[in-house]
Design brief:
Oligomer: single chain
Helix content: 55-70%
Strand content: under 5%
Structural class: mainly alpha
Order of helices and strands: HHHHH
């Protein structure tokens, strides 16, 4: 990491805490989702799959806020390295943030709050949901590196979630055919 030292403060603990929180979120909800699908732990504890969905949604949202806060703290501990001239240094990140929020909102609208893991299935498996993969901070190279790390973490998480969700819908199709 010595080559990164002028542009990334690798001695800042906040950087590593942020990376851990970024890793924790998709890992946690992947484990929770698989457990819920197989054992219905949250459904039984809360008495309804809908209550379980809303509970998990609140957890994901809350942990997302914590992750975002830790990411912001990590960036404050990093050196600022301007990558764009003045007007673009603000406009480009704002535009990318806005586009990212459109992706988040449209994917939430498309998928809804209720999820397959709780046995609440949509008519069809949604394959084309957008993900917010472009929101990053351009004036701090650590932000770009963390964004790359987020991309890698989510690629790994999707390798588990995609086939798992496919299996859930295939199971439902099989049951429907047997009926």
């Amino acid at each position: 990491m010595g080559a990164l030292s002028p542009i990334v403060n690798t001695a800042a603990p906040s950087l590593y805490i942020s990376l851990l929180s970024i890793t924790f979120n998709p890992a946690a909800w992947t484990i929770i989702a698989r457990n819920e699908y197989r054992k219905e732990t949250i459904t039984r504890a809360l008495g309804s799959p809908y209550h379980g969905c809303y509970f998990l949604a609140i957890l994901i949202f809350t942990f997302g806020l914590v992750r975002d806060h830790l990411y912001q703290c990590a960036l404050f501990d990093q050196p600022r390295v301007p990558l764009f001239p003045k007007p673009f240094a603000t406009l480009v990140p704002v535009l990318i943030f806005a586009v990212g929020q459109v992706f988040v909102l449209t994917s939430t609208y498309t998928l809804g709050i209720t999820r397959d893991y709780f046995g609440i299935l949509m008519d069809d498996h949604v394959k084309g949901e957008p993900f917010n993969a472009i929101d990053n901070r351009y004036e701090r190279p650590a932000g770009l590196l963390i964004t790359l790390y987020v991309y890698i973490v989510y690629l790994i998480a999707l390798r588990y979630e995609g086939p798992f969700t496919d299996m859930i819908y295939a199971s439902r199709s099989k049951v429907q055919k047997e009926e």
